[in-house]
Amino acid sequence: MKPFFTALIATLTMFCIVPPSLTAKDEVPKIPIWVKAATNADGFTVLGNSTGRQDSIRDIIGHVKKSKMLILAQTEQDSLVILEVIGRNTRIGYPGVFASNISRLEVRLIAGEFVMEFGVDTPSGAFTSYNQAAQELVRQVGSWVGENYSLIREHKIIKENEK
């Protein structure tokens, strides 16, 4: 009878200790991100609509707070990813019966030595906004972070060990 209870306890312990398998999305902890206005190599603010960039920074931060993949870093040094807002603009989309605008948000993503500049457009429509572009941007960055998590983490650890 004793071996039966030993096996039963071992089996129950195994199910209590070993968590159910995680999905790929659950395995990646939130990545700390820092959002700021773009500057040039000397630290000067990039020319252009700085008020618009600040509005977009607030929009991005708002969507990062709701993200399942990203979290705001306390400082730039604590971040694994830096997102610099370069600029934003609106252009006329496909003309139709109603006014049609496309809002575009231009950013620079920095993860260690990796730097990538890209833009995100809102869908063409009468009531598109930069906030929608910021939402799509955060979704795309979250997806990219999920795909490149191990490389981002590895690079940050290497950089910290070099100090």
Describe the structure.
- This protein is an alpha/beta fold.
- The protein has one domain: Double Stranded RNA Binding Domain.
- 43% of the residues lie in helices and 25% in strands.
- Helix 3 (50-66) packs across helix 4.
- Residues 10-25 have low confidence and may be disordered.
Catalogue the unreliable spans: 10-25
Spatial arrangement of strands, main beta sheet: 2-1-3-4-5
Radius of gyration: 22 Å
* CATH level-two architecture: 2-Layer Sandwich
Shape: globular
| Average of pLDDT | 76
The helix count comes to 4
% residues in beta strands: 25-35%
Question: How does the helix and strand content classify structurally?
Answer: alpha/beta
* Helix/strand order: HHEHEEEEH
Q: Describe the biggest sheet?
A: 5 strands, mixed
Number of strands: 5
Number of domains: 1
CATH topology call: Double Stranded RNA Binding Domain
How would you briefly describe this protein structure?
This protein is α/β, with parallel strands linked by helices and 163 residues long. It has helices at 2-17, 24-27, 50-66, 130-162; strands at 31-37, 70-72, 81-92, 101-111, 114-121. The protein has a single domain (23-162), classed as Double Stranded RNA Binding Domain, CATH 3.30.160.
